[in-house]
Design goal:
Length: 277
């Protein structure tokens, strides 16, 4: 492991400056989450409407312990097919909108931070940055598509259990509403976590483009269950390689990571600029 990959802070040199970090933009996260919520809620309204209609149609048989499961399963799977297609159609544009918004904002933020320290730079869409943007789009397309897939996997189980046990429509509606809550929480996690990851990834590329190869770990203090190793790294102001990251000694990790890389990690890196007189 190189000295830049993970080391405690040495006494700060008079010829270096530690700049403020680029933080994920809350507005972009909120906008992304709002669009995901809109898709999820439209899907759920459709599901509730058609499943309730199908359930009412078969309710006398359900009450008599007859199980019209095939009709309900067919309705659920038809809805699943329709909404998987709709999410597929929306995913590319939404993921591209998100990735481009984060890249534009994070590059502008870093440019302002560097300008305030006396360094003037102009960022362009380089091949390396394009690759990272494309990777971010692909990752988010997959995550967006996972929302209806996981939702309908659970919905079919809820409906089948309701039929098997002869539950009334009111209980079924409550169970469906709980599943909506789970799916919206997952959408919120996707928006928050991907905003952290994308901001960190774009910042890493831009720092390397301007020749900044070292950063100082800064713990966010925002999570309810902070990672102890990240808290310690922030307290000790650990230096790490912008290119390779910091070695997280947590037994569950034990590898090089970047700030914001692990799920729900909101840590950031403070760029270390050397060569000031």
């Amino acid at each position: 492991m190189s000295s830049l990959q993970s080391r405690k802070r040495a006494p700060r040199s008079k010829t270096e400056r530690v700049l403020r970090p680029v933080r994920p933009n809350i507005g972009i996260e909120a906008a992304y989450r709002k669009r995901l919520d809109s898709l999820v809620e439209a899907m759920h309204r459709s599901v509730v409407f058609f499943i309730k209609a199908s359930y009412r149609k078969n309710e006398p048989r359900i009450a008599q312990d007859e199980t019209p499961a095939d009709a309900l399963r067919r309705s659920t799977r038809e809805l699943s097919s329709q909404w998987l297609k709709k999410f597929d159609e929306a995913a590319e544009n939404l993921a591209a909108y998100f990735a481009q918004s984060v890249e534009k904002r994070s590059s502008a933020a870093l440019r302002n931070i560097l300008r305030d320290s006396g360094l003037t730079v102009e960022f362009k869409m380089t091949p390396i940055m394009r690759d990272v943007v494309d990777a971010t789009v692909h990752a988010n397309v997959s995550l967006i598509r996972s929302l209806p897939a996981k939702y309908f996997l659970e919905i079919e189980g809820i409906v089948m259990r309701s039929v098997q046990t002869g539950r009334d429509l009111g209980q079924l509606a409550d169970d469906l509403q709980q599943r909506l809550g789970v799916t919206k929480r997952r959408a919120a996690l996707i928006a928050r976590d991907q905003n952290n990851k994308a901001t960190a990834a774009f910042n890493r590329v831009r720092l390397q483009e301007v020749g900044i190869d070292e950063a100082e770990w800064r713990h966010s203090s925002a999570g309810r269950e902070p990672r102890k190793t990240h808290v310690q790294a922030g307290r000790e102001k650990v230096r790490f390689s912008v290119k390779d990251g910091w070695f997280d000694p947590d037994p569950k990790v034990r590898r090089l990571i970047q700030p914001g890389e692990l799920i729900n990690c909101r840590c950031v890196g403070r760029p270390v600029v050397k060569g000031f007189s």
